[in-house]
Amino acid sequence: MSTFQYKGYTTDGRTAVGTLEADSVRTAREQLRSQNILASEIAPEQQDLATGPISRFRRRIPVAELSLFTRRLATLTAASVPLHEALQALHQQERHPELRAVLARVTARLAEGMPLARAFAEEPQVFKENYVAMVSAGEAGGALDRVLLRLADFLERQDELRRTVSSAMAYPALMALVGGGVMLFLLTFVIPKITGIFADSKATLPFLTVALLAVSNTLRTFWWLLALAVAGMIWLYRRLIRRPDVIAARDRWLVRLPLVGRLLQTLILARFTGILGLLLSSGVPLLKSLEISSAAVVNRTYQTALTNAGVAVAEGGSLSAALSNPALFPPLLTHLIAVGERSGTLVENLETAGHSFEREFESSTTRLVSLLEPVMILVMGLTVGLVVVAVLLPIFQLNQLVR
Asked: 83 and 44, same structural domain?
């Protein structure tokens, strides 16, 4: 028995922090569930829970590395290579330092007679609960190689979705950064020097020029106050975001946004249907699959809906009826699930829905970015043009006075 530290939330939304005795991280998580606590972080007592951004960054293993490892392990197990030898070989050729250290610990546990799924469960920062559940089902059903191949395909699709989001947001973020930097430079360095020529003039300056000078003087004089205000808002947000009620309110607001909310819902549904279909195809029971899928969906609004759906299914209801909430689950999805439940093709229909949501997300992201690019260029052009006009107007007035 080992002592584990945990952080999580109770069913009524309160924060829960403490320690408990358990054989493994998975057992600790199950004990917490029996106490109606949803754990967000679990680690041995001698290790620090990853609470800061630096520690999380250091422990993170890219999804591409994990999917490559999973595919290599599937290839070796399909060739009837013993698990211990396969993991030893993968450990020796692994180049990522953190993953290499994890594989060393997993190999040592296998040498002690621990099952592969339990050895993976001891590394919750790397192998999430859906990963462990699928490996466990593959071991029990004697189809570990096929399960690992499905898991590798799923991880690669998730990595492609992440790259799609990153590449889509890179250009708008760069435009906003460059535009903000240019405007800051103009207001703090260029504008004061140009408008200095109007200081000796007794002519009345246009309102636009006066307003621009006021903004420039405010930035130059009270920049420290603005910096403190920004830092204070960031600190306040980080404090508030730890409260479950604030997180729930934020997640409700996000899914209701006119344009971004629809895109976020599509991404959440793609992840939910993909994970649920993958777990069911690997032999994980429906209730357990729903529980894992709801934990994998980070939005609290969807987590609550999926938790309630799990309760309804446990009481004898159908999954399609439990998900009959058009605001969160489109009728097309519930119809596909209902047809799959009647015909015994639930896994295939969930996979079809998952691929459909992924394609919809990619096409919607492409359209959104293609719309953002000209809008941001237009906004930057209008802003710079406004500054130019504010500078040129008093020059034209001076020319008229001279004449």
From this structure: no
Question: Alpha-carbon torsion 388, 393, 399, 402, what sign?
Answer: negative
Alpha helices in 241-330 (DSSP H): 244-255, 260-281, 286-296, 300-314, 319-322
The CATH code of the domain that includes 127 is: 1.20.81.30
Q: 144-148: long-range contacts (C-beta < 8 A, 24 or more apart)?
A: 144/74, 144/77, 144/116, 145/74, 145/77, 145/78, 146/74, 147/282, 147/283, 148/70, 148/71, 148/73, 148/74, 148/77
Q: How many domains does the chain have?
A: 3
Contacts of 56 (CB under 8 A, 6+ apart): 50
Same-domain pairing of 370 and 260: yes
Range of the domain at 35: 2-59
Out of 138, 157, 176, pick the residue that ends a domain: 157
Tell me the mean pLDDT per 10 residues along the chain, length 403.
69 69 74 78 56 46 89 90 89 88 88 86 84 82 83 85 80 83 82 68 72 83 88 90 85 87 89 86 85 81 89 89 89 92 90 89 83 83 83 72 52
| Residue 100 near residue 91, CB atoms below 8 Å | yes
Query: Tokens for 315?
Result: 């009481």
**Cα–Cα nearest to 392, from 200, 219, 191:** 191
- Reported as type and span, the H/E element at residue 140 is helix 129-141
Residue whose pair of structure tokens reads 């009837």 in the numeric block = 80
Amino acid letter, residue 222: F
Helix, strand, coil % (nearest 5) of the chain? 75, 5, 20
Same domain, 52 and 81: no
**Domain finish residue from 21, 36, 59:** 59
141 with 169, same domain: the answer is no
Would you say the pTM of this structure is higher than 0.70?
Answer: no
Same domain, 353 and 258: yes
